[in-house]
Amino acid sequence: MEIIWAHSAAALWMCVVIAVAAASISYTVTMTELFAPLRSWSQKLGHMVGYLFTCFYCMSHWVVIAAVLVYQPRLIHSNMLAVDLIVSIFFTITIAALVCGLLFRVFLSAMAMKLKQQEMAAVMHK
């Protein structure tokens, strides 16, 4: 029983790491200028593919699914690998969504501050 708890604790940590990484990857791909050409190209492939590369919430799902399938953290041990991985995927997606929301709030705050600075600079130049 103690071994299962040790594995579950390691899996929990792995899910948290995957969630934070997925949020960061998703936000970077969907919001930064670095990936603007990729987003532009994906728009030409169709609405849904284009949407995937502009929605950090949507992108985070696919990043989490890929990472959980590669690393296979098992938060529960039901003797059915598929069920265990589905639970891990949805748990990790939830954490990633929370992190994405936090990143988005920080982004909005930074943008609001930048706009205020630009407005102040414009007023000062008049």
Radius of gyration: 19 Å
The SSE order reads HHHHH
Structural class: mainly alpha
**Which regions contain 5 or more consecutive residues with pLDDT less than 50?**
none
Q: How much β-strand is present in the residues? A: under 5%
Total strands: 0
Structural shape: elongated
Total helical segments: 5
Largest sheet: none
Distance between the termini: 72 Å
Transmembrane segments: 6-29, 49-73, 85-108
Keywords: Membrane, Transmembrane, Transmembrane helix
Protein name: DUF1360 domain-containing protein
InterPro entries: Mycophage_PG1_Gp7 (IPR010773)
Account of the 3D structure:
The structure is a single chain. The protein is mainly alpha-helical. The protein has one domain. The protein contains five helices and no strands. Helix 1 (2-31) runs parallel beside helix 5 (81-125) and helix 4 packs antiparallel against helix 5 (81-125). The longest helix has 45 residues, at 81-125. The N and C termini lie far apart (72 Å).
